[in-house]
Records
---
Amino acid sequence: MTAVSDAATSSALRTREATVRRFAFTDMAFRTATRLSAILVLVLLGGVAISLVAGSWEALSKFGFSFLTTESWNPVTENFGALAPIYGTIVTSAIAILIAVPIGIGIAIFLTELCPRPLRRPIAIAVELLAGIPSIIYGIWGLFVFAPFLQTTIQPFVIWLFKGIPGLNSLFAGPPYGIGLLTSSLILAIMVLPFITSITKDVFDTVPAVLKESAYGIGCTTWEVTRRVTIPYTRVGIMGGVMLGLGRALGETMAVTFVIGNAHRISASLFAPGTTISATIANEFTEADGNLYTSSLVSLGLILFIITFIILALARYMLLRIDSRTGA
């Protein structure tokens, strides 16, 4: 009897040891896989940076810092400067984010707090479908529908409205081409709006119901609950959505190429044609017939890479400041 009991105990111990070994192996494999995935991201990022630096070295060594401050872009004389594409990229992205962020957050608040339940899902699906439309479709629509509408209605009215106001008369000066920096900004705002809205709505849904019910219980209005509970609780997620939208706006190519006019010059007017870094690369890379020309285009890619990195770093720094200020 004792021998049978010892055998059963020994078998149970062996089974337990085998289970522990299996769990340890699974945990080690999972830890290794996730670590390799993280390292792969760093390797890819480093590879992209190194290839951009190597490809742009010829142009940067020839033009130096003046490459960033020169507006001229002349493939015939091989005189290249990135100021106009940098200006177009920053202006169009900034205007697009200024338009899309309040509208996107407003739609997210409506869907989570105010929208009737039967309409909530259809509207949310419609917003997500907007994100799936290819950018070239936005570009074609912008060129053949949106730009003519702006040219014949909005732009002449705005030019007339601000004609005698100093500053604004330069910002909204004619002639009304239809295409230009403002048209590109509006198209970008439409394109990034679904990303900001969807992510903001999803993070709003993560707010514990007890927090909002407690606020409502002490007499807060919907606006006060949104401003004092929902937005502070989800600010990191909201910032993530804004950064995702900004990243798409900075790097958007085809839609912008259709409607921006592709002119390498800087104008005070938002109605004037311009260009962006990504649009310049897309338009001219296949036509670049010299090493210096190709290197200048790769340099534009390196500048866009650095701009994106700086903006994301500033966003993370701003979030850290907010967290330290609130004691999170």
Note: The two ends are 62 Å apart (CA to CA).
---
Amino acid sequence: MYALVDGNNFYVSCERVFRPSLNGQPVVVLSNNDGCAIARSNEAKALGIAMGAPWFQIKHLAEDAGLVALSANFALYGDMSDRMMSLAAGLGPAQEIYSIDESFIDLSGVKGDLVERSHKIRARILQWVGIPCGIGIGPTKTLAKLANHIAKTAERKPGTYPNKLAQVCNLASLEKSECEAVFAATAVNEVWGVGRQISKQLQEGGIHTVLDLMQLDPATVRSKWSVVLERTVRELQGTPCIDLDHTPAAKKEIACTRSFGRPITEQHHIAEAVTEFASRAAEKVRKQHSQAGQVLVYIRTSPFRKDLQYSRSMVTPLRRPSADTACIVKAALQGLNHIFKPGFNYAKAGVMLLDLQPDTNQQAELDLEDRDAEEDRTRLMTAMDTLNQRFGKGTVLTASAGLEGVRREWSMKQLRRTPAYTTRWDDMPVARA
């Protein structure tokens, strides 16, 4: 048996913990550069604001409907997520953190009333962290994910499902007729793993609800669609096909990209940005104990501006796989020198590390050159990561990243970002009684 614990409108809920005046108000959280909505409160959803809606298209709602827009504050969200996950782990013996706001819990061997236990964990998360959650329980991960959708929808839209399923939904505790009624009332595109294209194909074939999908023959599904959809159907029928993933696989590519806060024309400003992106990517590749074989860098103008358009990328192979910040930054800047052209208003740049491989495997070479050039700088990189983790990002950095911090020309706007309430001493809120 599995449970899925999912924070409701997570980014907005994190903001509301420290600003209770936002409760009941339409709120959106904007992307890194205040470009588009990446999280919405229920009140904002009721205004018809879609996920990914550009801010310039919805900003009139600030005056017309009292819409509050905030810049993304990922330092706050990450810390709040850690706190929520540590409490959610008390639900069962094993946990898989699926995303910043979702975690699967293995309920094997857990005795007693699972619904009552889930309500207690949910209440504890709400009281101790301030995040409202929905909890779905089912014999497979796909059914747990579906149950979570039902739990949250039953709370947000009373009358859609039986009221007893609001907040916590255990599909295994329902009678067969109740289950079928719930599945018949749920659209097929709400099933985990059924994307837009597959959903369209299913509906064209007369399969509109979850009940329609789970009644299909798995072998027919495999021959007509794919083995992936067959696995989904088997999971809906109660056969576990997806295990709890305790140790997520290492990433095969690592990218760090950002839009600039304003159009950039000078190469040295873009070089600062590329240096920082390459440094971030190098830190990530060291964290997962990998090395990169190639470095891709790209720059482009904004397709939304009526300017001359330009977009170019270049891949620079490394002589030998490396996780050294200096080596990766050097390759990225070499690529930038080849693709940069003056006369354009650049809006975005990015660095991607390719051909990743474990750092336990070293490619050997014939000893034809000076060995001093192959100095092992693993300890230096470890010290650099330790300092940046302890004293904050950018404490130790490559000189070509510049020293002006958030005042750099390419820095993101984030004009509406709230303080880092839980991760910076100076921003810690003060309560007066």
Note: Residues 320 and 349 are 25 Å apart (CA to CA).
---
Amino acid sequence: MANKVIYAVYDDPEQLKDGARKLVSAGVKVKDVFSPFPIHGIDPIIGVTRTRLGIVSFMFGIAGTALAVLGIWYFNIFDWPMNIGGKPSFHYYQNVPAFIPVTFEFTVLCAAHGMAITYLIRNKTLPGMPARNPDPRSTDDKFIIEVRTADNHGHNSEAIAELLRQSPVTEINERQC
């Protein structure tokens, strides 16, 4: 049995959600959805798991805080201690309040940049990478559901297409993969 990819094209996001509900209620796994803008409420319908991007951001923030503390200690205490108002800086803990803004800003900088880079890597949308969009119309005014027969062992392509025809789909395209 050849593996096929089925693309169902809709004109409206609500029609796409209805089609996705029919597929999922029949036990068909939806691989992905392509749309010109985010569709609110589609994630629980097609079973998208919760992202761990917040955890990654927290880890990059902790790394940023550690780098900031290490850098401040090295540059301002160890390598070139500053003598401000006759009070030399020989200990980091005595000067922590002066370094809080720098530490905070470096934490936010590392968390934001690390999260953005992780997002681009996970979505495979780094600059220069080829687009994974199956139909260029999904960037304009069409909404597309992608279903793979390899993910749905209990359903063949004809049964999935028949389920899709029960929804207000405009066209159904099949490709070999």
Note: The chain has a mean pLDDT of 90.
---
Amino acid sequence: MTPKLSMTPKVSILSAGPGVTLQDAGRHGYLRYGITAAGPMDPLAHATANRALGNPLGATALEVSLGGVEVTAEGGPVGIALAGGEFRISLDGTPMPPACALTLQPGSHLVVRAGRAGAWTYLAVAGRLDLAPTLGSTATHTRSGFGGLDGRALRAGDRLGIAEGRPGPADPHALVAPWLARPAEEIRVVMGPQDDVFAEDQVAAFLAGPWTVTTKGDRMACFLDGTPLTHAKGYNIVSDGIAMGAIQVPGEGWPIVLMADRQSTGGYPKIATVIGPDLGRLAQAQGGTRLRFRAVDRAEAVAARRSEAQALAGPVAMEPLIRTDFSAEFLLGRNLIGGVVDGAGAHAP
């Protein structure tokens, strides 16, 4: 059993790009007051990072956008796990896998940068981030200005105290989490609740696609480009509730997928809803990604949810890092000629 640390460690933010926030599993039960849940854009990756450290799956973690983040530890070592898209991670200049667990020592420098795939990654800490919940949750809803740290995105100089902190692995390890490999080419949806607003050929066109993820998306919505759809019965309906993953089709005809920071109600018809297990798959799609939707029935959606839950039923396996490739940045930072000798056996200067 790992002994608890007597000190109070902190995660210190050295720099943060736009959109780095604190997210737990979300703020549920307040939709009737117009408050949506917030929570992680990729719930599976968020839960994976927490599971790797033995935290509750919904524990508060840093959600890191393409802008990246740089952090260090203060007051003691901090156990950390990262999981999500294929971000570029480095610890004191040494590259790490995009999904990894390690112990961040005081003064060490952890850098998280956007990589070749994925839009979000999650930095969980071993223990509990010491935050006061708002309406029972620490999830940051920046548009509403509450949750997280003062209801805002994180920035340089912020310090996050950790209660019941624990170190991570003595040496960095890669997380074995194959379920995080989720190309976005196909996104499963349940049709409705207003697909009857569209003629059959328009429903077929919606499913045939392809649709391209644009670059103007954020935590509120994912915007799609392609051949616009037309409405058979107009595009204004009586406003009703909006679930995460609901696909609205406004008058212009380009679908909009509502995400974690969506509004609570809306008056455009919803042709379909992305199933829960594919929300993270869609959220990780960078601008320019082409995708298609596939309609599934409720039974397939439930089976997918159960399969996802099974992946996180036990501990997340880890593998020690074995260096087989070295980047130019890594090699340039090392003394590669130390120990060279001349013909007489003496060390070269």
Note: Residues 227 and 254 are 8 Å apart (CA to CA).
